[in-house]
Design brief:
Elements: E1 2-5, E2 12-15, E3 21-25, H1 28-34, E4 39-45, E5 49-53, E6 58-62, E7 69-73, E8 82-83, E9 88-92, E10 96-98, E11 104-109, E12 125-127
Parallel strand pairs: 3-11, 11-12
Antiparallel strand pairs: 1-2, 1-10, 2-5, 3-4, 4-9, 6-7, 8-9
Length: 132
């Protein structure tokens, strides 16, 4: 069981699954979205995820002409969980408040476009052009 919420606390959620693998995306879109080196997410089955509060405060933005979208809190701007595909949710792991103790970076995505100042120092598998 894991719990998470945004910075202002309006949106909160729970995950009924063990979270272990972090996927770190270094692509240029994720870097602009976060203003940082990219975004770190965990993936869970939809059935294991549910919002507890604040779904009405969630904004979805889809980048035109790209297969990419993001969810964020309209009050504080924190990244939030959303659907990854038909069966999975992605969870920005920085929003977790508990249940994250076993997380380790398992995969680095789009390392070909990572920021030049970012140095990868863990054993996560590097995927130059995304997850294949
Ligand atoms: Zn918020
Ligand atoms: Zn990305």
């Amino acid at each position: 069981m894991a719990l998470g919420e945004c910075n202002c606390g309006a949106v909160s959620y729970e995950v009924d699954a063990a979270l272990t693998d972090v996927f770190l995306c270094h692509c240029s879109i994720c870097r602009k979205s976060t203003g940082s080196g990219g975004i770190a997410v965990a993936l869970v089955n939809r059935a294991a995820f549910r919002f507890l509060t604040g779904e009405e405060s969630i904004v979805k933005w889809t980048k035109p002409n790209h297969d990419w979208h993001t969810y964020f809190c309209k009050i504080c701007g924190s990244a939030l969980p959303g659907e990854n595909d038909a069966t999975q949710m992605y969870i920005p792991v920085g929003t977790l408040s508990s249940g994250y103790e076993s997380l380790r970076v398992a995969h680095h995505l789009f390392t070909n476009s990572k920021a030049h100042w970012e140095v990868i120092g863990d054993t996560g598998i590097q995927h130059p052009n995304g997850y294949e």
